[in-house]
Each structure stands twice: as C-alpha cells, then as structure tokens.
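Hi everyone,

Forwarding the result from last night's run.
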Amino acid sequence: MTMVFGIPLPALLGQLLIGFINGSFYAILSLGLAVIFGLLRVINFAHGAQYMLGAFVAYLTLAYTGLGFWPALIVAPLIVAAVSAAIERTMLSRLYDLDHLYGLLFTFGLALIIEGTFRYYFGSAGQPYQTPQLLSGGTNLGFMFLPNYRGFVVVASMVICLATWLLIEKTRLGSYLRAATENPQLVQAFGVNVPLLLTLTYALGAGLAGLAGVLAAPIYQVSPLMGSNLIIIVFAVVVIGGMGSIVGAILSGYMLGILEGLTKVFYPEASNIVVFVIMAVVLMVRPAGLFGKEI
C-alpha cells in the first residue's frame, strides 16, 4: 500500500475529501456573511440559524408536500431569503445608524429564537434527509472511492461562489450595491431605491445560507443545532479571510477546510482548534485578515 509520511494514501485522500467538503460549506456560509457585512456592515449572527432553516424547509417540504431535493434547492433559499428580507425591512434596518454591536445583539437574539422554536417542536435529535436518487452511489477513481453526492457538493459550491462573486463585482446591480454602502445619499439622488438594495443584499446573504443548508441536509442530519455547531468556525473563517472580503471568504473557506482535514490525519487532537489557532496568528500578524484592506 502506498504511504505518504507514514499515512496510507487512501486514508489521506479520504480526509482531504472530507476537508474539501467541509471547506465547501465554510466557503458558502462565510461568503454570505462577507456579503452582508461588506455591504451592510452588519455582523449577522443569525447566519447559522438561516442555514438550519434552509435544511428544515427542505425537510418539511419533502415530508408534507413531497417536494424533492432538486426543487428544494430553489424553493428553500427563496423562502429563507423572503423571511430574512421581511425581518430586515421591519426590524434590522432600524439599527443601521447605530453601533455595529446593536446589529450583532439583534441577530444573536434572532438566532436564539429561531433555534429555540425548532428545538421545541423537533427536539435536538437530527432528522434524516435522503440523498437524491440521481446522485446516489459513488465512483471508483482508482485511488479512492468518491461518493457522487459529495462530489456534487464540491462542484456546486464552486459554481455558487463564482456566481456570487461575479454578481457583486462584475454586474451593474453589484456596483449599485457597493456604491449604496459607500454613499447612499448620492446613489439615492440618481433615482436608485437604496433601502430596497439593502434588503436584497441581506436576502442574498441569507439565501446563500439557506442554500448551504439544503446541500448539507443529505450529508449531515437536519437538526436545530446544525447552525450553532458551525457558525463559530465560519466566523473564524471570515475573520481570517478579512471581514467583508468576498474573495477572502471563498478562498479561506476552502483552504481551512482542507487544512482541518489534513490535521485530522497528522495530529487529530488539534483538528478542533486548528482554525482558531490560525485566526489568532492572522490577527496578530495582519489584523485586517489575509485578504482584507488595512485601515
């Protein structure tokens, strides 16, 4: 059997795959956080709850309406985005002129309410969600066995991240969004509906979290705790990449997922803290993050 640094090659590649899958979710979730903070300057602590909500919408629509995985990929993010847009318009928008701490406290409380409600009705135990039939089974690559659905998640996450980056950086709508955060009065003077743009921005970030929840449902069980178990790591990823940096969120998500997977092979005891150790080092060396702009 081929060995790499004393580790069997299949075991190493298997952990790399797990790390890449985890990194895919880190990238999508941290991207949503970066979009919201970069454009709205809101530290969205409800992001984990929105991720959980997307998974539960997929689970409940399947249980009560028979809506399968593929329609849920569209329906669930739209529902999460619509609910989040209503919350932003009616409550969160009132906090924009206040200190960032108020937005953080509001979204933290919102996350506790959503999680507590789902725990009350569904308990803490996870609910299974079936892998779509089209992606069941796996593919033998010769050096390892790749589950088809996990391969799909990796590809889908890359497409989602690229599409979001193109929307923010390369389209007229994205330029309006960026301009509205820098000088909202000037943009409003040109006839652009700035409040609507801000609502759409928050809905986009929340929708990305909901989409990640649907993708996660067949891999991790659908549970009220799935968001709270992940959000702290995702915040660390965002800090490492640079608060508000779209590219930083994407690249840091994948890199840290892979690094976490490698740590599980070579030093398993440190796998749960390696992301936070890196965050501490980055903050000491470059407080703005790897891809953030120095102030």
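The radius of gyration is 19 Å.

Cheers,
N.
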